[in-house]
Amino acid sequence: EPEVTQTPSHQVTQMGQEVILRCVPISNHLYFYWYRQILGQKVEFLVSFYNNEISEKSEIFDDQFSVERPDGSNFTLKIRSTKLEDSAMYFCARGQGASTDTQYFGPGTRLTVL
Amino acid sequence: DQQVKQNSPSLSVQEGRISILNCDYTNSMFDYFLWYKKYPAEGPTFLISISSIKDKNEDGRFTVFLNKSAKHLSLHIVPSQPGDSAVYFCAASGGFYGGSQGNLIFGKGTKLSVKP
């Protein structure tokens, strides 16, 4: 059973459109992470989120990206104006936030930008 | 800047034999290392981890070895099974980029094929 679920499993959008990817934790954890994997490349950290605030973000996570937990449960990643290079698998993970913490990943959302 | 490197993109092993997957890292501040297994169109699945204070951790058929002086870790799978065929990612945390939040730095992965 996955530690987190993600919706949708696949999202196709036109360049310049906004997309919202959702992550639903199954258990009550405080730390969440978003990662992405462009086809054929490694998994890359985007942002970590703790207690309704961004904890840390990578240089990939620019002003086009935002995260929030609108209802205290679902955890969303928004891309405001998608670009072709945003096409990737996006993974949500949950953890405890410590440097010696195991993170458990969701099944991912495949984003295709046309 | 690859802080975590998996230099072998692929590995083919016969069923029942040992699979050895290697990983090198450059950041001596990393204090926690993990191996994930990934099938196509799925998320990474946690396999096994090791803290920097240890040099070996074992869980069933999976053993991870850490050599801090060489900044090298390896995953041993014994015996290998066809169901082990997947991409294996090495990841590390605790470095300057990970900090206390535990953000993971991944290698590029090694595709393991176990032939019956």
Kindly describe this structure.
Helix content of chain A is 0%, strand content 52%. Chain A has 114 residues and is mostly beta strands. In chain A, strand 7 and strand 8 form a beta hairpin. Chain A is globular. The mean pLDDT of chain A is 88. By secondary structure, chain B is mostly beta strands. In chain B, strands 2, 4, 5, 9, 10 and 11 form a six-stranded mixed β-sheet that branches. Chain B is globular, with a radius of gyration of 14 Å. About 4% of the residues of chain B have low confidence.
Task: Provide a quick synopsis of the model.
Chain A is mainly beta. Chain A is 0% helix and 52% strand.
Helix content of chain A: under 10%
Helix count of chain A?
Answer: 0
Largest sheet of chain A: 7 strands, mixed
- Unreliable spans of chain B are 96-100
Elements of chain A, N to C (H/E):
EEEEEEEEEEE
What labels describe this entry?
heterodimer, A: 114 residues, mainly beta, 4-stranded antiparallel β-sheet, 11 strands, B: 116 residues
What's the layout of helices and strands?
The complex is a heterodimer of chains A (114) and B (116).
Chain A: E1 4-7, E2 10-13, E3 19-25, E4 31-37, E5 43-50, E6 53-57, E7 65-68, E8 75-79, E9 88-95, E10 104-105, E11 109-113
Parallel strand pairs in A: 2-11
Antiparallel strand pairs in A: 1-3, 3-8, 4-5, 4-9, 5-6, 7-8, 9-10, 9-11
Chain B: E1 4-5, E2 10-14, E3 19-25, E4 32-38, E5 45-51, E6 56-59, E7 62-67, E8 72-77, E9 86-93, E10 105-106, E11 110-115
Parallel strand pairs in B: 2-11
Antiparallel strand pairs in B: 1-3, 3-8, 4-5, 4-9, 6-7, 7-8, 9-10, 9-11
